[in-house]
Request: fold
Amino acid sequence: MSSATTSVRDLLPSAPVAAGPPSPLDAESQGLLNALRGSGRAYDEACARLHELLLRAAKFEISRRAWGLPAAEAEDLANEAADDALVAVLRRLDDFQGLSRLTTWVYKFGIYEAAVKVRKRAWRDREIPLEPEAWGLLPSGTKGPEDGLEETELLTALTASIENDLTPHQRRVLVALALNGVPIDVLAERLSTTRGALYKTLHDARVKLRKRLAEQGLSLEAWEGTN
Amino acid sequence: MERRDLEQAIGRLLGPAGPEVSCDTCFAELDRYVELEVAGKDADAAVPGLRAHLDGCSACREEHDSLRALVSGERPA
Reply:
């Protein structure tokens, strides 16, 4: 099984991203970029335009994810996200290679900052379940006799592998993210780490589980593609 | 637990089968990937491993879905 031996980081240097030649920038994007690399009034106006774009993206994200949030709080959250995103965009301006429209590149920063804030807001007053006993819910349900046999065998092997093959940290991260639905940004903040580092831990745990199940001859095809 | 729920739980535990990019690479490539998708081009060929990552990382998937919706001109729900 390829995923048993391929790590997230393995893919990075060898992933040939078919970039192709950069497309010429539209006039507005080029003008905005030039102003952002300059100074004075033009720079200030370009920053204000960037903030408008980021605020639009942040409000879009918040309206999709944070229903029920009081309007004033949603507005504050969107402005905070746009402010933080503006700092990130200005810091990473040289990363923009013109492989997409500048607006699309900018929007992703606004959406990212807003999404993280919405997730943290939603879990602000909630306890984060980190203990492995919280996953007792998994092996409980078998249906008919045929399904039951297949499920029981897989769940027994999966349970054993989670208990025996994973490190305590991998087990804690897997249970929190994959079973208890803790948002990765919320867990990253709680554990003083990053989304990327946590996802690497999750990925490594998944590889171990898949490898163990494959060694036991268990077919995973019926369970694929249902994340 | 219904079978569908069980399938989803196992899917979340095991993640995608194929190689995938990291969260950082996903973020770096997301704008180009989304524009290719919206244009009806083969985004998966252009950025190998990004689709698998979206299948395995719910946070990146949410951000992808939002960016795609925004770029496509969808109105928020």
About this structure: DSSP finds five helices and no strands in chain B. The two ends of chain B are 30 Å apart (CA to CA). Chain B has a mean pLDDT of 92. The helical segments of chain B are 3-14, 23-38, 43-46, 50-56, 58-71.
